[in-house]
Amino acid sequence: MLIRKLFKFENAHIVRNCTSDRCKRSIHGHSYKVELLLKASKLDHGQMVYDFGLLKGVIKDLFDSFDHAICFWQDDSAEYIQACKTFSARWVALPVSPSAEQFSRIFFYLAQQVLQSTITQNGEGDVEVYSVIVHETDTGYAQSFQEDIENVQMGILDLDKIVFSEQVQAEWMDPQMYENLKQGLKFQNPAVDLQVKI
């Protein structure tokens, strides 16, 4: 079974080496919509794949990190990267270009890492990320699947290579959250008192 959670954010970028002259030479922004699709073959005690309320924690904080931020590719020019850091308190450095395609891979990867690092407590089954769709405009989107995350020709994704500015980190519910994720520490979902015996 699949469930879908929609996230929204505003973000600015340049997509180097693309065909469109406007996109590769000028900073511009989009109103993004990110669809996170989770799948499981078993339902939890609440008869859900994964309670939507649980997605308002670490995953929401990570996705919201991109809101009102500028994203740049770490292989861009040092001068451009420094300008991004100088003139925006909210920035995200990426190991890949900030295209819609790479955003879909990054959000898939981040959600996957969080789910794999989460201790569930309500009988959740084999919950995993099925797909991520990133709408860059009303008429265009990119969608990624597990095989896209594993495809090194599309770029290697690594938690150490995705860097969030100090301002972004300061706005998280737990400013140490990302360091904890990188160190393999576990997140724990709340305990649940069952009202009906299963």
Helix content: 25-40%
Rg, Cα atoms, Å: 18 Å
Contiguous low-pLDDT stretches (5 residues minimum) are none
Q: What composes the largest sheet?
A: 7 strands, mixed
Q: What spatial order of strands do you see in the largest sheet?
A: 7-6-2-1-3-4-8
Order of helices and strands: EHEHEHEHEEEHEHHE
Number of helix segments?
7
Mean pLDDT: 97
SSE-based structural type: alpha/beta
Cα end-to-end separation: 21 Å
Task: Please describe what this structure looks like.
Strand 6 and strand 7 form a beta hairpin. Helices cover 28% and strands 26% of the residues. Helix 2 packs antiparallel against helix 4. The mean pLDDT is 97. By secondary structure, it is of the alpha/beta class. The strands form 2 sheets. The protein has a 7-stranded mixed sheet with strand order 7-6-2-1-3-4-8, sandwiched between helices. It contains 7 helices and 9 strands, in the order E-H-E-H-E-H-E-H-E-E-E-H-E-H-H-E.
Detail the topology: elements first, then pairings.
Blueprint: E1 2-13, H1 21-25, E2 28-39, H2 58-64, E3 69-73, H3 78-87, E4 91-94, H4 100-116, E5 118-119, E6 128-135, E7 141-144, H5 146-150, E8 163-164, H6 166-170, H7 177-182, E9 187-188
Parallel strand pairs: 1-3, 3-4, 5-9
Antiparallel strand pairs: 1-2, 2-6, 4-8, 6-7
Helix pairs in contact: 2-4
Question: What can be said about this structure in brief?
Answer:
With 198 residues, the protein is α/β, with parallel strands linked by helices. Helix content is 28%, strand content 26%.
